[in-house]
Amino acid sequence: MTAGKLGRIVAQNLGRNRKNMAFAGFGIVVGVSSLIFFLGLGSGIRRVVATQIFPTETNRIQVVARKSGAGPTVPVPVDDAAVKKLEAIPGVAAVYPRMRLAIPATMALVGAHFPKKDLDRIAGLPGVSPDIVASVQALDLWMEIMADGIDPRLLGNDVLFGPFADPAPGQPVPVLVSKRLVEIYNASFAEVRHLPLISEVIIPLVPSLPLTLNESYVNRDASGPRREVRVRLVGTSHQAILGGLTLPLETVRKLNREFAGEAAASVFDSAAVEAVSADKLTAIQTAVADLGFTIDASQQRTAESVALAVTLVMLGFSLISLTIVAVAAINIGHTFFMIIFERQREIGLMRAVGASRADIRAMIQGEAAVAGIAGGLAGVALGTVFCFLTDLLAGRLLPKFPFKPDHFFAYPWWMFAGSILLAIVFCLVGAFAPANRAARLDPSRALSGR
Fold first, then answer.
1. Residue 1 confidence (pLDDT)
2. Cα separation of 143 and 218, whole Å?
3. Would you say 98 and 273 are in contact if contact means Cβ atoms under 8 Å apart?
4. Cα 362 from Cα 10, distance rounded (Å)
């Protein structure tokens, strides 16, 4: 039997049995649509984790000094000499050292002490109400500040409002805050305290703030001279420390040298090693270990753990969807058994006039494949519509929370292609036994009705 004739017969049979096939394919539509929904939701959440919460660079590793153990190995400090050795490793494009501020620091944000010109500037911002200005005036925060210094070359385009470099004497120190910290502040703290949101619009209007060095609210035994400097926010970055302020590296080195001595200013806490390409990282990691350093992959492990948890939850829901599709495949098998029983004389006549067993088998499997394609397409369409509606309602009805995305769903191409292919495969599996039974029908018995 030619492919053209087979196609016409399949189309005629499906037309005659459209009600039965629609009933049998209902489970396929439900299963595929739910699979699209959960896969889209999981892909969207993983995208937020990878790009907003724990962004990682595929061509960088974080190098730290190896911790001392029970053996004779002596930790190798990450100092200027170590940075030069790391830069000399083949495949390394750049090394960006990082240094923690070795002294405590505090910040007192008292609204009553803010200059009137700064309050007037805040009041003139779009969307700032008198209640927000009053909340700023009533602000009374006393904070212990952690800080570190970072190589400005690592920041790319994160610095938007002024240079990020060691300032001249008497000038405010430029600082960065973490994008994650800003998201948490905007989504929770600012709304509760009726404070203005931090955005690229408001950053250049934020006044310089006081930072008291070598002072601690926690450790009252902190000794030595104190000094107050002003700091000015110049941008936000994923490279900035999460729970504090990030300063230019040279500024932190100078402050450590001034307050804690030369030793504190000569040893870095870590260094980001950037490879010319991701495929060079394996060799670079081996060379780093040979030099006596350790790779710090804590943030990457955290991101992987969160992504794994999301994947496992979505996998559980996806298995429910696959179960629905599997049950639908069983229903399709029952439907085809019923159809074959009703059409056994027709099948016997086809066998009598020359149709082979392979032709009968191909006819039944062809009907199942078309039913799978139709059910898969309908399921994909229904699931996509449900995703869009859920996305729209979630954006409007859910309250703002940290890292709330603009879109909760993502739509990779493989999700649609795989769902349709899955529907076809399950339909073919469901029709396999009925197709074999139809192919084995004896023409004489089928025509005689026995």
1. 57
2. 10
3. no
4. 9
How many other C-beta atoms are found inside a 10 Å radius of the C-beta of residue 423?
A: 30
Question: For residue 174, what are its two tokens?
Answer: 């430029």
Greater model confidence, 70 or 353: 353
Q: Residue 294's beta-bridge partner residues?
A: 64
Helix 357-397 and helix 3-16, axial crossing angle in degrees, nearest 10: 60
Instruction: With 0.85 as the threshold, say if the pTM is over it.
Output: no
For the chain, report the end-to-end CA distance as a whole number of angstroms.
Answer: 27
The single residue listed with the structure tokens 């005689």 is 448
